[in-house]
């Protein structure tokens, strides 16, 4: 990386560090003002953001940008604005009897300067939802968005400069080299959203500074159809969940597990449901393109590998279109793919859905537990016993029952992965807490009896200790 970039990065960080030192506990008015400016940034420039992201993707539905990015972020900012005063309040926590009449308090405090590294797939949401939480908690924020959405990243940088002082919120534009230098800075907290491979490198870099990290990573998220499920709604939901953003969604169902013997019939119904959502592909503005030629080629090669190994590939191209030089990729449903192929090992992150058949619920659970813990899990059915077993016996970042994706939109629930799909969480109050030091404070009373336990030890100590034992 050029020395000048490194100097700019260090200057941006130092500026925020100094600003935090000057104002280590922004009051509620200052925080509300920052959140309102962030809200204005999202409200006043919606069309520009949709246009920039559309151009970066070579075709991204403005409806999807508004629904899955802009509205989600706005809802998060409004939620933070309305709950900020209760989140910021000192919390009374119980005090054990021997310490009465002293009192315990939990005091939330800003950490300082927070770094946010975001990916390309939902560039707006994944930069600004963590920023919302970090600003609400009273921190200074530096954002490093993805180099794969350059128009969006430049737009965000210029709008951030119009709405914020650089010592409040600043955007650093650049690729992996800038990313590496960014995560090596001694942040007070880092939130990284991206691949598991890069997440590991980020955790190593942060460890050198003992910077705490929240890692929002990816993985293969399963969807399971129980024999008791309503197939019509289940199929419609998986078709939508898989094809939103052309499958480039961290919590998209990666593969589908169906009861033995039903794979062919369900594949046919899925193809029908997908064709209904997207009757045309190449020139359909509702259907998003693949982000780059490299990602397009990767997805094509994953499918070619399983085809060559004897899998059945059903391409959903209802209008029989030729895709020419667009980066649109038709939805594909795959049956009988060998497990040792890349399609069945790597996170797919595109509109390709493998179907696996399973015998009973134990086999389905065994399949999931034999792999990395997923970011999301979807279960469809009415059988309460089977549902309880799947919920209790598998570990995943989050779950939606009888639908896809919905758990990410719940501001009253934490969002985050587990193990290889991530660590830590944010959204709503969990985001505020992630970016706060929840400082335990013990407030001694003038009537406190602690002095009776001090030396010189003797009869008073023994009497107090006896009393202490009775009370604990
Ligand atoms: P990525 O890991 O390639 O890049 C993410 C960001 O990290 C980019 O800004 C990039 O410039 C930066 N970066 C790259 N190398 C770096 C390094 N060595 N050090 C520091 N930063 C570096 O991910 P991507 O391809 O942009 O995104 C796709 C992945 O993100 C998928 O795996 C997906 O599942 C995951 N994801 C997870 C969530 C979630 O909330 N858990 C959300 C969206 C995407």
Automatic annotation (TrEMBL):
<feature type="active site">
    <location>
        <position position="216"/>
    </location>
</feature>
<dbReference type="GO" id="GO:0005737">
    <property type="term" value="C:cytoplasm"/>
</dbReference>
<comment type="similarity">
    <text>Belongs to the aldehyde dehydrogenase family.</text>
</comment>
<dbReference type="Pfam" id="PF00171">
    <property type="entry name" value="Aldedh"/>
</dbReference>
<dbReference type="InterPro" id="IPR015590">
    <property type="entry name" value="Aldehyde_DH_dom"/>
</dbReference>
<dbReference type="InterPro" id="IPR012394">
    <property type="entry name" value="Aldehyde_DH_NAD(P)"/>
</dbReference>
<keyword id="KW-0560">Oxidoreductase</keyword>
<dbReference type="GO" id="GO:0006081">
    <property type="term" value="P:aldehyde metabolic process"/>
</dbReference>
<dbReference type="InterPro" id="IPR016163">
    <property type="entry name" value="Ald_DH_C"/>
</dbReference>
<dbReference type="InterPro" id="IPR029510">
    <property type="entry name" value="Ald_DH_CS_GLU"/>
</dbReference>
<dbReference type="InterPro" id="IPR016160">
    <property type="entry name" value="Ald_DH_CS_CYS"/>
</dbReference>
<dbReference type="InterPro" id="IPR016161">
    <property type="entry name" value="Ald_DH/histidinol_DH"/>
</dbReference>
<dbReference type="InterPro" id="IPR016162">
    <property type="entry name" value="Ald_DH_N"/>
</dbReference>
<feature type="active site">
    <location>
        <position position="250"/>
    </location>
</feature>
<protein>
    <recommendedName>
        <fullName>Aldehyde dehydrogenase</fullName>
    </recommendedName>
</protein>
<keyword id="KW-0520">NAD</keyword>
<feature type="domain" description="Aldehyde dehydrogenase">
    <location>
        <begin position="5"/>
        <end position="439"/>
    </location>
</feature>
<dbReference type="GO" id="GO:0004029">
    <property type="term" value="F:aldehyde dehydrogenase (NAD+) activity"/>
</dbReference>
């Amino acid at each position: 990386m050029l020395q000048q970039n490194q100097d700019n990065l260090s200057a941006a960080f130092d500026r925020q560090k100094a600003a935090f030192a000057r104002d280590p506990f922004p009051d509620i008015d200052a925080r509300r003002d920052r959140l309102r400016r962030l809200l204005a940034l999202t409200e006043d420039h919606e069309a520009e953001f949709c246009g920039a992201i559309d151009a970066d993707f070579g075709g991204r539905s403005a409806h999807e940008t508004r629904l899955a990015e802009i509205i989600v972020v706005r809802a998060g900012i409004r939620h933070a604005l309305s709950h900020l005063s209760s989140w910021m309040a000192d919390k009374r926590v119980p005090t054990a009897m021997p310490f009465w009449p002293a009192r315990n308090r939990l005091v939330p405090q800003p950490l300082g300067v927070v770094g946010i590294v975001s990916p390309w797939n939902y560039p707006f949401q994944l930069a600004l939802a963590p920023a919302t939480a970090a600003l609400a908690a009273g921190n200074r924020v530096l954002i490093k968005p993805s180099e794969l959405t350059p128009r969006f990243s430049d737009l965000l940088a210029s709008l951030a400069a119009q709405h914020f002082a650089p010592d409040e919120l600043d955007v650093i534009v650049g690729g992996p080299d800038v990313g590496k230098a960014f995560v090596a800075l001694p942040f007070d907290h880092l939130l990284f959203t991206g691949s598991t491979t890069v997440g590991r490198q980020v955790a190593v870099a942060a460890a050198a500074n003992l910077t705490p990290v929240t890692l929002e990573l990816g993985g293969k998220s399963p969807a399971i159809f129980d024999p008791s499920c309503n197939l019509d709604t289940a199929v419609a939901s998986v078709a939508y969940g898989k094809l939103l953003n052309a499958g480039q969604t961290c919590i998209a169902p990666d593969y589908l597990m169906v009861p033995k013997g039903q794979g062919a019939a369900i594949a046919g119904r899925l193809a029908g449901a997908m064709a209904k959502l997207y009757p045309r592909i190449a020139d359909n503005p509702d259907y998003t393109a693949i982000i780059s030629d490299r990602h397009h080629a990767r997805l094509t090669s994953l499918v070619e590998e399983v085809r060559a190994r004897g899998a059945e590939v059903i391409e959903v191209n209802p209008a029989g279109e030729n895709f020419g030089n667009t980066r649109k990729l038709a939805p594909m449903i795959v049956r009988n793919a060998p497990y040792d192929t890349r399609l069945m090992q790597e996170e797919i992150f595109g509109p390709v859905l493998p179907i696996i058949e399973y015998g009973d619920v134990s086999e389905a659970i065994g399949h999931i537990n034999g792999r990395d813990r997923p970011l999301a899990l979807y279960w469809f059915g009415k059988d309460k016993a089977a549902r309880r077993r799947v919920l209790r016996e598998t570990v995943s970042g989050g779950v939606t029952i009888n639908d896809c994706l919905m758990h990410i939109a719940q501001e009253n629930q934490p969002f985050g992965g587990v193990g290889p799909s991530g660590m830590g969480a944010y959204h709503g109050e969990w985001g505020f807490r992630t970016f706060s030091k929840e400082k335990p404070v013990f407030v001694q009373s003038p009537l406190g009896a602690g002095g009776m336990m001090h030396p010189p030890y003797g009869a008073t100590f023994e009497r107090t200790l006896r009393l202490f034992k009775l009370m604990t």
